[in-house]
Amino acid sequence: MENPEIVTIPETLLVGMQTNMSLTENKTFNLFSAFMPKRKTIKNAINTDVFEICIYKDGYFKNFNPNNTFTKWATLAVKNFENIPENMETFNIESGLYAKFNYKGLPQEIGGFMGYILGTWLPNSAYILDHRPHFNVLGDSYKSNAPASEEAIFIPIKPKTS
């Protein structure tokens, strides 16, 4: 597995839809089925890249349980929060440090990749997990349910203190 690129993400304004879910009660398909047909109604989108945001409660990964709930968003980055479409909400990613990984493969196989990031790479790196949103960017190389599909995974980090 590759080492990530360490990047500082600027503040990013997003518009989209959200749902609460757990890994055992995964509602990703429903969320994206509702969002994708309506994304063209977002008039001030910066590009067509879809941001899949996950907001976990503090300690979610320390006391991991697939029944624990989190919030997932399907969004587009926007220039401003003007003209928000009906049934959509705004979300703000604050500027911060992220480890950016490139994932290639089927969505249902991403669990093993995430296990590597959180269980092997992170503990052996100079960083610890920061309590901020995690997100994936589904760009032009993302193809739903295709083995050659690619997405960028952003894990919020901060330097370990000695």
Overview of this structure, please?
This protein has 162 residues and is mainly beta. It has a single domain (5-159), classed as Regulatory factor, effector binding domain (Multidrug-efflux Transporter 1 Regulator Bmrr, Chain A). The protein is 12% helix and 43% strand. The protein is built from two helices and nine strands, in the order ββαββββαβββ. The chain has helices at 28-35, 110-121; strands at residues 5-9, 12-22, 45-55, 69-78, 89-93, 96-104, 127-129, 134-138, 150-159. Strands 1, 2, 3, 4, 5, 6, 7, 8 and 9 form a nine-stranded antiparallel beta sheet that branches. The model has no long low-confidence stretch (mean pLDDT 91).
**What Rg do the Cα atoms give?**
16 Å
Name the structural class. mainly beta
Order of helices and strands: EEHEEEEHEEE
> Looking at this structure, what is the CATH superfamily?
Regulatory factor, effector binding domain
What is the number of domains? 1
Distance between the termini: 27 Å
Shape by Cα distribution: globular
Number of strands: 9
Largest sheet: 9 strands, antiparallel
Pfam families: Cass2
Domain AraC effector-binding: 2-158
InterPro entries: AraC_E-bd (IPR010499), Cass2 (IPR029441), Reg_factor_effector_dom_sf (IPR011256), YobU-like_regulator (IPR053182)
Protein name: GyrI-like domain-containing protein
